[in-house]
């Protein structure tokens, strides 16, 4: 029943579109009734005699083909703007049709910088014959290699002059890149603590609520699945960075890196408690305040209560 109604509505729509293109006034149709011209007109533009679906579909197809736009006929600025919405795969396919437009350096430069926000080569004087398309392929190859073997991936980028072998440059590359596998990144940062130090300093936690800042931190540097020395190192570095970014808040609330360290562990444990389906009896707000203030007595009860509300409403800090 539904498909039948759809076909009827579709046929009516096609008939209406075609009738608008070859409409003849009724008065002229009456004067030409009975003539051969009138018969030919009815054959090509049927009215009451029924709908010729084949002719209607041909007319619609011709209309769609007429609407096809050749990008080479447009102003170059407009064509480049249209192609700038494509990803690398679609842009390669587009270059098969519009070779000059698809290989435009401006488009590939945008793809490189939108995917890998920082590379040392961006700030250098580019040699003659430099190609951003080739650079994109090398960056993609380096990222894929990193996701299989972190050290080999970094060696690949450094050996080709894309990245300087300096901790701050490597940290910026990691911070502004979203294509790196977080498990391999965790392995790499655990081995390169100098890069981890620079990566932490790139975060700006000014005027952020503590749980939100911790979420932002773990969004870039994923927390390990188990508690250990690496997690303690991450929280320690985060605590010092959070206090450095919020000197006024630290002074007003009486916080210190050690107090923030304790609060971070309390937030992680609370997140697990409230989100885990295996925990039947969830921790109450009163229990969380009491347990936290035993370890961090300088922190006010209201502040700890706000921490609980944030986790309860928003969720895990390391999800």
UniProtKB/TrEMBL annotation:
It comes from Scleropages formosus. Residues 128-314 form the SEC7 domain. Pfam families: F-box-like, Sec7. This is F-box only protein 8-like. It comes from the Eukaryota. Gene3D superfamilies: 1.10.220.20, 1.20.1280.50, Arf Nucleotide-binding Site Opener,domain 2. SUPFAM superfamilies: F-box domain, Sec7 domain. InterPro entries: F-box-like_dom_sf, F-box_dom, FBXO8_F-box, Sec7_C_sf, Sec7_dom, Sec7_dom_sf.
